[in-house]
Design goal:
- The protein is of the alpha+beta class.
- It has one domain: Alpha-Beta Complex (Inorganic Pyrophosphatase), CATH 3.90.80.
- It contains six helices and 16 strands.
- It has helices at residues 2-10, 19-28, 92-95, 227-233, 237-247, 268-286, and strands spanning 41-46, 55-60, 65-66, 81-82, 85-86, 99-105, 113-115, 124-126, 128-129, 132-133, 148-151, 176-179, 190-203, 206-215, 258-259, 266-267.
Length: 297
């Protein structure tokens, strides 16, 4: 019975047909507005979980394979009709702050899943270290990642361009998102998020921006509009974020991470400018205006 309850909580018992089989009906019947984001995309698992050949591929509603890095739009079109039904009307300022997030790592898990930027179709895979799938250590008192972790599509932190705010080049990946909502999400889910702020992590000399966001469909999302609301309604969460990001690589023998701005979280307006900049870098990469290296597009 205990094992069955665990299956029901995690959804593992429904993964025989892959994540798409589990998530698509739920997303399609979830109602209007941001709830239906996942209905636009399906996922397909290949290989054995936690093995080097495990991949999560993405498809659109027509069944065509797509890249979660390049083909999913950055912004959510609040005026767009989905399945012939208009989405819930949002305030103008909120509609400008709705972005698609590709979930890579669920909260409380340790497997270091990521978009494979150098592979065709850019599936989600598990990072490999020393020839073995990589797991992030638990940072006391936390279990695994303390947020749902993922990325914004159609963004790129250019490794050849110094960020004017940090004076460090980018980390060659899409911009990262730490989603702080109440629901534990699944790898491959595509959700709508509201951006609340941003933190400038300096990881081994590279700029690695960490966006703070909340699922637009979270029951408490209406209370969150900027970074100060996180301090107000989730006290201690930002401090825990700094602590986790400082030490999470130390068990691997690496030094503590550092932060620009003395670890200060910047507000929503600042974050939106960084998103705009990384989106422009992504467009320049696709137009071959800069060196994209081994990235598959």
């Amino acid at each position: 019975m205990r094992a069955l309850l665990q299956l029901l909580r995690t959804g593992r018992g429904w993964r025989v047909g892959g994540p798409a089989a589990a998530r698509l009906p739920q997303a399609a019947s979830a109602g209007s507005g941001p709830r239906r984001a996942m209905a636009l995309y399906r996922t397909e698992e290949r290989g054995q979980l936690h093995s080097q050949d495990y991949r999560i591929f993405f498809k659109n509603v027509a069944g065509h394979y797509i890249s979660p890095f390049h083909d999913i739009p950055l912004k959510v079109d609040s005026k767009k009709e989905e399945n012939g039904i208009p989405t819930k009307k949002a305030r103008n300022d909120e509609s400008e702050n709705l972005f698609n997030m590709v979930v890579e790592i669920p909260r409380w898990t340790n497997a270091k899943m990521e978009i494979a930027t150098q592979e065709p179709l850019n599936p989600i895979k598990q990072d490999v270290k020393d020839g073995k799938p990589r797991f992030t250590a638990n940072i006391f008192p936390y279990k695994g990642y303390i947020w749902n972790y993922g990325a914004l599509p159609q963004t790129w932190e250019d490794p050849h361009q110094k960020d004017k705010s940090t004076n460090c080049c980018g980390d060659n990946d899409p911009i990262d998102v730490c989603e702080i909502g109440s629901k534990v999400l699944s790898p491959g889910e595509v959700i709508h998020v509201k951006i609340l702020g941003i933190l400038a992590l300096i990881d081994e000399g590279e700029t690695d921006w960490k966006l703070i966001a909340i699922n637009a469909n979270d029951p408490e999302a209406s209370k969150f509009h900027d970074i100060d609301d996180v301090r107000k309604f989730k006290p201690g969460y930002l401090e825990a974020t700094i602590n986790w990001l400082t030490y999470y690589k130390v068990p691997e023998g690496k030094p503590e991470n550092k932060f620009a701005f003395n670890g200060e979280f910047k507000n929503k307006a600042f974050a939106l400018e960084i998103i705009k900049s990384t989106h422009e870098c992504w467009k320049a990469m696709l137009m071959k205006k800069c060196d994209r290296g081994a990235i598959n597009w």
